[in-house]
Design goal:
Blueprint (H helix, E strand, L loop, with lengths): L2 H27 L3 H4 L1 H26 L5 H26 L11 H9 L9
Amino acid sequence: MPLYLEIIVCVSLLIGGAFLLVGSYGLVRLPDIYMRLHSPTKASTLGITGVLLASMVFQSHLKGFLSIQELLITLFLLITAPVAANMIAKTALHQRTKPLDKTENQALMETVRDREAPKPPQD
């Protein structure tokens, strides 16, 4: 394997590992569910992207052609992680999970929770 590819793989793994470490630490240390959602969805998604990018470069070199599986996994994660975080946040909101007292705009939580679904248009 050429030196420049080894450097790309190593840097990508280090950056991905750093993001994963920060995401894991944030998940453990942040105080409430609304703050905890930010850490795994942002940092961990970037971390997995770095690891899969390194795998894609390595596998492409071994096979001799572009490895597309890692790219598809990365795309799937980039699409589904924010949607999953949004669903978890909505569940916490409707279960009336209390945020920290220092959280700003808590009145907006009540407004969003109590709003009604849009009505279908009348013909």
